[in-house]
Write a structure and sequence with these properties.
Layout lengths: L1 E4 L5 H11 L9 H9 L10 E5 L5 E12 L2 E11 L8 H15 L4 E5 L2 H4 L5 E2 L5 E2 L9 E5 L7 E4 L9
Parallel strand pairs: 4-5, 7-9
Antiparallel strand pairs: 1-2, 2-3, 3-4, 3-9, 5-8, 6-8
Helix pairs in contact: 1-2
């Protein structure tokens, strides 16, 4: 499995990954696929933090993206979506993508990454409930599912705000 930066020619495959990973039973529009497309369109886009996992056959098996958000007006990252083709889930693709995107963020001197997800899964990557790090969720009802990975004692505190396209996700 090769983890590399997404290139424009990967976009249809990335969309297909998210559509498959988050398929709706009613066949409706997949919010994660639409969100990923929208995240590439504004100042929050950080190309170095949009990564694909490519298997030996050349198939894009997974994708992760982190974009510019803020905590109390100071720069931070919002992670997601993270998607893996259903046939490859459980093969370590998601873990490899997480390790790669977090390493890239830390190498870029980012201070904090936030996400909404399952605590039992993300704790192994160093995520903790955001409130423990002094970061409030955009939606208080998210509780312990809103988590952060702090890279520096200089990480900001306050309320987290995702990139604007997240506001359209319901």
């Amino acid at each position: 499995m090769l983890i590399r930066r997404e290139v424009p020619s990967d976009r249809p495959a990335v969309r297909a990954v998210h559509e498959a990973a988050f398929a709706r039973p009613d066949g409706g529009e997949v919010a994660e696929a639409t969100l990923t497309d929208a995240l590439r369109t504004g100042p929050w886009w950080i190309p170095q933090l949009s990564l694909v996992a490519v298997d030996p056959s050349g198939t894009v098996a997974g994708h992760v993206i982190a974009t510019r958000g803020d905590v109390g007006g100071r720069p931070a990252l919002g992670l997601g979506p993270l998607g893996v083709l259903p046939a490859r889930q459980g093969d370590g693709v998601g873990s490899a993508l997480m390790h790669a995107v977090l390493a890239a963020a830390e190498a870029m001197d980012e201070l904090l990454v936030a996400l909404l997800g399952e605590p039992a899964y993300y704790a192994r990557f160093g995520f903790v409930p955001a409130a423990e790090a002094g970061v409030a969720a955009p939606e208080p009802a998210w509780g312990r599912y809103f988590q952060v990975r702090v890279f520096s004692s200089a990480a900001p505190s306050g309320t987290f705000r995702y990139a604007a396209p997240f506001d359209a996700v319901s």
